[in-house]
Amino acid sequence: KDVQKEREPHVYLSEEEVKEKIQSYNSSVTDKLKMTLNANGIYTGFIKVQMELCRPITVQSSQSQGRCAHSNNESAFHLPDSCVNTLHISSTNTVREVIEALLKKFFVADNPAKFALYKRCHKEDQVYTCKLSDREHPLYLRLVAGPRTEMLSFVLREHETGEVMWEAFSIPELQNFLRILDKEENEQLQILKKRYAAYRDKLEEALGGVWKPG
């Protein structure tokens, strides 16, 4: 289970330190997703973000995939937790810009303010998660941690605000959520009915064997 941790202070690197870290980073990369240092001191590279969304996302219906509930030109569907997206960003890109780029890549119509980017670290056999502020730079964090995702990974989640702020959702979004819930409820009911029907058949078969005249 993840454990919340305070944000670590930002350590500013000199141009020479950045250059050395990029060289070290690229020498350790195993998936060819290397970083590039530009003449102006800005560097570019790749980050992978795992999508861990509890609620359905709203997308343009023409781009939607999977289980959908349609409403006009929009659809809502659940994104599997196994979904990992790779983004090419620069050292100047902030967390807020990364979130917006992720949503744009998935054609998500939801307000970016509903989402937060977390970093997940493994230290001393413990998993720590920390919500990143909008002004932090994910590529810098990736550079400092190195390319190994078991040392540092990024996760997109909904904002943890305790109770769900349903008033932040539009009417079409809420209607789509209700349709999805109805569909999932019906699916679960069918599964339960089949399970108990199988139990009933086995019990009746067993009873028939016990009371069968010998």
TrEMBL record:
Entries under SUPFAM superfamilies matching the protein: Ubiquitin-like (SSF54236)
PROSITE patterns: RA, SARAH
Molecular function terms from GO: zinc ion binding
Protein source organism: Pterocles gutturalis
Ras-associating domain ranges (all copies): 80-161
Protein name: Ras association domain-containing protein 3
A Pfam family that the UniProt record links to this protein: Nore1-SARAH
Residue span, SARAH domain: 163-210
Swiss-Prot/TrEMBL keywords: Cytoplasm, Cytoskeleton, Metal-binding, Microtubule, Phosphoprotein, Zinc, Zinc-finger
Subcellular compartments: Cytoplasm, Cytoskeleton
Superkingdom in the source lineage: Eukaryota
Gene3D superfamilies registered for this protein in UniProt: 1.20.5.110, Phosphatidylinositol 3-kinase Catalytic Subunit, Chain A, domain 1 (3.10.20.90)
GO biological process, one term: signal transduction
Cellular component annotations (GO), alphabetically ordered: cytoplasm; microtubule
InterPro entries: RA_dom, RASSF1-6, SARAH_dom, Ubiquitin-like_domsf
